[in-house]
Amino acid sequence: MGSWLGEYVNALMGTVGCGLAVDSSCAAQHLAQFAWAVPVGAGVVAGISLMVGQWALLAINRVGRWRTLLTLVASGLGTLLAAAIEAALVTGLGWLLLGGSPRIGAVLPSVLIAFAPYWLGFLVVLPYTGPGVARIVKVWHLLLLWQLLRPALGVGSTAALAVAAAAWLAAEAIDVAIERSPIRLRERVFCLVSGSPGLTGRDLMASAKMGEPR
């Protein structure tokens, strides 16, 4: 068991390292040993790292230890869902732009590995530079997705870039739509999982202004 776990961690770290270097051929070599376990692990850790970067949100809402752990796990699972949606977009756009019909099962591992840059998502917590880091990670994700889709779709650089860029933009549009939706789905899920009121820094600033003497 220990030997298997050590080999898995090595394969996972090797795959993510290749991903961060935007080396699709290197990543494919590591994927051969553990198949789905490595891409899924990469996606889960990416989601956890993103939530760690939002530690201030957990602190503001005074989320307890076990709820924090549950929130981190939920964030990891949420990244798997986001990857599945992006893979579905790649499949649909691949059919639309290339005339082919790639299977989502063949595309999803590549999309999950393309989330490797989000392992650095915790860096968004850095003051002043956090928003810039978030943008860099998103573009990094796009570049890696482009390179990984070339062998996954069996197409050239231009065609892979067209599909990757279109899927990435569509995924970003969906993310913005969810963020600004009147039903506030993301906030509701956070409140449910964390057991907190879902306060943000903006809420605290608004409360402070209301309490200021006039």
Describe, in short, the structure shown.
This protein is mainly α and 214 residues long. The protein has 10 helices and no strands.
Give descriptors for this structure.
214 residues, mainly alpha, 0% strand, globular, disordered C terminus
How would you characterize the overall build of this protein?
It is a single chain. With about 210 residues, the protein is an all-alpha fold. It has one domain (about 35-210). About 75% of the residues lie in helices and about 0% in strands. The protein contains ten helices and no strands. The protein has helices at about 1-20, 25-35, 35-50, 55-60, 65-100, 105-115, 130-155, 155-180, 185-195, 200-210. Helix 3 (about 35-50) crosses helix 5 and helix 5 packs across helix 8. The longest helix is centred in the middle third of the chain and has 34 residues, at about 65-100. The protein starts with a helix and ends with a helix. Residues about 205-214 have low confidence and may be disordered.
Q: Structural class from helices and strands?
A: mainly alpha
Q: Over the alpha carbons, how many angstroms does the gyration radius reach?
A: 19 Å
Q: Whole-number average pLDDT?
A: 82
Q: Strand share of the residues? A: under 5%
How does the major sheet shape up? none
Question: What is the helical fraction, as a range of percent?
Answer: over 70%
Count of strand segments: 0
Q: Say what oligomer this is.
A: single chain
Helix-strand string? HHHHHHHHHH
Domain tally? 1
The low-confidence parts are: 203-214
Rounded to the nearest angstrom, the distance between the terminal CA atoms is 66 Å
